[in-house]
From TrEMBL:
Pfam families listed in its UniProt record: MtN3_slv (PF03083)
Keywords annotated in UniProt: Membrane, Transmembrane, Transmembrane helix
Cited InterPro entries: SWEET_rpt (IPR004316)
Transmembrane segments: 6-27, 39-57, 63-84
Record protein name field: MtN3 and saliva related transmembrane protein
Signal peptide: none
Length: 95
């Protein structure tokens, strides 16, 4: 592996896992409270474009980190809507 690829892997690590604290907090709380899925959805969508760009320029760091980031961001969106649905069911059951 060349030096520029190593630097790419190190640099990608931070941005890739930027959404992980939100996902972990939501899972720990088991609530969508305080979360907005828009940012994660936008980031995940454009990271798909980054994956394609990584394929075009044949850059493994760009491809790998952005695939992981896509998964994390779409897990944030999925967890948000899962908890919103559950919270709605609980509210309706209390009526």
């Amino acid at each position: 592996m060349e030096l520029h690829e190593i630097i790419g892997f190190v640099a990608g690590f931070g941005t890739t896992f930027a959404a992980a604290p939100d996902l972990l907090a939501m899972l720990k709380r088991r609530s969508s409270r305080g979360m907005n899925p828009t940012m994660a959805g936008i980031m995940g969508t454009f990271q798909i474009v980054w994956v394609y760009y990584g394929v075009l320029i044949d850059s493994m760091p760009v491809i790998v980190w952005n695939i992981i980031a896509v998964v994390i961001n779409f897990l944030v969106v999925g967890a948000f809507f899962y908890f919103v649905r559950n919270e709605k069911i609980v509210r309706e059951a209390k009526r």
